[in-house]
Amino acid sequence: MDSSSRHERLLRLDRTHVWHPFTQMQEWPTDEPLVIERAEGNYLIDDLGRRYLDGVSSLWCNVHGHRKRELDDAIRAQLDRVAHTTLLGLASVPSIELAAELVRLAPPGLTRVFFSDSGSTAVEVALKMAFQCWRQRGRPEKSRFVALQEAYHGDTVGSVSVGGMELFHGTFRGLLFQAERIPTPYAYRWTGPGDCGAACLDVAERVFAEKGHQLAALVVEPLVQGAAGMLTQPPGFLRRLAELCRQHEVLLICDEVATGFGRTGTLFAVEQEQVRPDFLCLAKGLSGGYLPLAATLTTESVHEAFLGDVASQRTFFHGHTFTGNPLACAAALASLRLFETEHVLERLQRTLAALAPKLARIAELPHVGEVRQRGAMVGIELVQDRRTKASYPTAERIGHRVCLAARRHGVLLRPLGAVVVLMPPLSLTMEEAAVLGDAVHAAIAEVTGP
Ligand SMILES: *Cc1c(COP(=O)(O)O)cnc(C)c1O
Hints:
CATH architecture of the largest domain: 3-Layer(aba) Sandwich
Order of helices and strands: HEEEHHHEHEHHEHEEEHEEEHHHEEHEEH
Radius of gyration: 22 Å
Distance between the termini: 45 Å
Bound molecules: pyridoxal-5'-phosphate
Number of strands: 16
Helix content: 25-40%
């Protein structure tokens, strides 16, 4: 079978059987689906042999590029030992080594690691732990959660309950528990009084003052609210929220599923605000973006609340079949080692310096409203009118069309509405940064015109 008839066959079967996530399947065939077959470094290669720069790290998770020798070798070596064993009642070598390594690298105070398999479950675990923790500390009234307005914490029912994106979450409202809300510091579109960050913190203070005694935890994406459109928080914002949590005895859950593992320039985003959370949720980049793996880190103090004899029923009754999967843990250990041996964060600064002038040029395009950035997380918000900040009608699918155009320039992206997202692997070279920037510039110019 030649490659084009094979391609047609694969597409036909895809259209017939594969239900794609976050995808309007009726429109899917017109999106000219690509069928990815292999990869090399920061490039994905489709079944027709076409190469594309992976501009969003395969949905925000790839860290060191694809087919990274050290990661491939670590997984193969583990495969020669065992692919999967359970952590329910058994321990395993890679999960032990990884837990210790995560504790060494995480902010001080986080000494206990609970493994699961996705960002959603990492958050779900933190929510349930926080809830149960207060019951077992004899404070059952502390049972509610507070979250940011435009939050995204995953797609399971608990993590959607603390999410706040109307488009994704509105449908399910009747199924969810109610959470308290703090407005998102979205400075570009702030219409309220005064300084955006300060105004949001004022509301936070009121919520904590009125409801603090009922709050189990605050859950927040530190520094950048990713899925909401790469919304960046002003300096000091996270720090102030952390102070409010301490003052009102509210546990702090930092969801670093997107920001973790170097994306914002430091290994963890919380480091930039010297914040020590009670829970740190990790997934996406944890295994270098290779395999589904997540971890919820917490403190001795939280862990202690769960101790007692079996009859006391203080056990955390939660777990997943593939919790702490050895192949994924082996990949994660190799990934963490690379951060040190390849000086990933130092090298990233040089790549970002190469990207900076390209982003500055993009910011000058007539339909670019704002370019937001923290480290390797970039959001380019497109607007119909720069002066009035008027949005494009949703039906125009402006972000989507820019991404299709970028594809013609050899770059794969996925937008968030009218926000073009760049979130390249940390292994992006300076040359590739220039390719990425030029492709995005050309794509935006072509689609949005003068
Ligand atoms: C992607 C994401 C999640 C959900 O992770 P999944 O692995 O897709 O379940 C949770 N929180 C944040 C901040 C994310 O970006």
